[in-house]
Amino acid sequence: MSDPVFLITGASSGIGAATARLASQAGYRVVLAARSTEPLEQLAAELGGAERALPVRCDVTEWDQQQAMVQSALEQYGRLDVAFANAGFGAARGFLKETPEYWRSMVLTNVYGAALTIRATITALKDSRGHLLLTGSLAGRRALPGSLYSATKFAVTAMGEAARLELNDTGVRVTLIEPGMVDTPFFEKPGEGRLAAEDVARTVMFAVSQPPHVDVNEILVRPTAQSS
């Protein structure tokens, strides 16, 4: 296949931007989606402009914007081969932390937004016998004290398996990427002993580079300095 198409939500920074760079290097045309347009446009220019990278403003909690995102991808490039539901953000631990409004936004983005990305891309992925990926978390495999974020990632873990079961006979592969601590804008301060966003991006590309008969369903990746 020449010039397959790789769509990424949450592409303006961190894991999404790092994955876009590696996907572009691997020969993919990339569709870059996020709420912030300026960093998307800068990244798209870096990756070769309109022929190779399409920036699309998309709030993943809005169904009409998700539909428009996929439609833009199909109009520009004619197909969709990989969809990476990566948009999400975290919250301070503690059920007396953050505001209820912040919680609502996080839950809608991390859970509802991921579900909408699946819904928006599923038909095009079936057409291409493509690949669906979701960003989960180590926090989606073990509960963290007072962490509603952890609960949202448990939901993404279940969503990934639910999607795999639904798509099992369609040729569409499904992979859940579960990073441990990553040095991204998720954290206010950089720290040692964390994965770089590029480390997670390489994990994504490992999954999508497997032969069509190989379906890597879950990848849990920790920094060596993280013991739990």
Quickly give the CATH architecture.
Answer: 3-Layer(aba) Sandwich
Instruction: Output the strand order for the largest sheet.
Output: 3-2-1-4-5-6-9
CATH topology: Rossmann fold
- CATH class placement: Alpha Beta
How many distinct domains?
1
Tell me the Rg in angstroms. Answer: 16 Å
Largest sheet: 7 strands, parallel
The percentage of residues in β strands lies in 15-25%
| Average predicted confidence as pLDDT | 93
Q: Tell me the span between the first and last alpha carbons.
A: 40 Å
Q: What overall form do the CA principal axes indicate?
A: globular
Number of strands: 9
**Quick one: CATH superfamily?**
NAD(P)-binding Rossmann-like Domain
Helix content: 40-55%
Q: Helical region count? A: 6
Secondary-structure element pattern, one letter each: EHEHEHEHEHEEEHE
Structural class, by secondary structure, is alpha/beta
Model regions low in confidence, pLDDT < 50 over at least 5 residues:
none
Describe the structure.
- The protein has 228 residues and is of the alpha/beta class.
- The protein has one domain (5-221): 3-Layer(aba) Sandwich (Rossmann fold).
- 43% of the residues lie in helices and 18% in strands.
- The protein is built from 6 helices and 9 strands.
- The strands form 2 sheets. Strands 3-2-1-4-5-6-9 form a 7-stranded parallel sheet, sandwiched between helices. Strands 7-8 form a two-stranded parallel sheet.
- β5 (131-135), α5 and β6 (173-179) form a beta-alpha-beta unit.
- α1 crosses α6 (197-208).
- It is globular, with a radius of gyration of 16 Å.
- The termini are far apart.
- The mean pLDDT is 93.
